[in-house]
Amino acid sequence: MPSSTFHLFEMHILDFYTQYSQFYILDKGSPQRTDSDQFWTEEASKDRLAIEEGVLGVGTQCYGPVKATVVIRESENQNFDILKYDHIVEGSLQIKSGTIQIVDCPTSSIEFQTDIPIGDYRVRVYSLNLNSVVGDEGNDSYEIEIWPGKLNLRKVIKRYSDN
Q: Out of 28, 49, 133, 147, which residue is the most buried by the measure of CB atoms under 10 Å away?
């Protein structure tokens, strides 16, 4: 009987400051075109995930402080509680350099870096406590899962509406 469990490569807890309600997950060697007209489109903003070659932009509810957990997995987590999260979105990222990074905006300070095998990955971002944000700060947090997977379009699994 096949097992439904997944194996964890590594997990990291992040607590950093970013601006403009965004941070980036990227291939260290990517051109980092976060100013592209195709990056923060209206759809990407609504979906809270911008995609460009070698870089994903994660939209945050707060303007500055970010609390995040990064989990690198061997395979997709198919056993999560959708009710626990306010918003869930995933996208693809091609890693050509063998190093994945999480950087702030706009200074591009490296908040997290690790070596992973060169290849195609899926990245899922779970957003929590989005309603807690008042003004620039709140108790929002983000869980990021990364696993090897085919390149595919952005996919919203659960949409947050703050209306």
A: 49
What CATH code is carried by the domain that includes residue 54?
Answer: 2.60.34.30
Count of the separate structural domains present in the chain: 1
Cβ burial 10-32 (10 Å sphere, 16+ → b, else e): eeeebebebeebbbbbbbbebeb
What tens digit of pLDDT does each residue of 16-26 get? Answer: 999 999 999 99
CA distance 146 to 74: 8
Closest CA to 150 of 89, 81, 90: 90
Residue with tokens 């693809």: 92
Domain range for 115: 8-158
DSSP 48-112: TEEEETTEEEEE-SSSSEEEEEEEEESS------GGG-SEEEEEEEEESSSEEEEE-TTT--EEE
pTM of the predicted structure, to 2 decimals: 0.91
Ranges of the chain with pLDDT below 70 = 1-8, 163
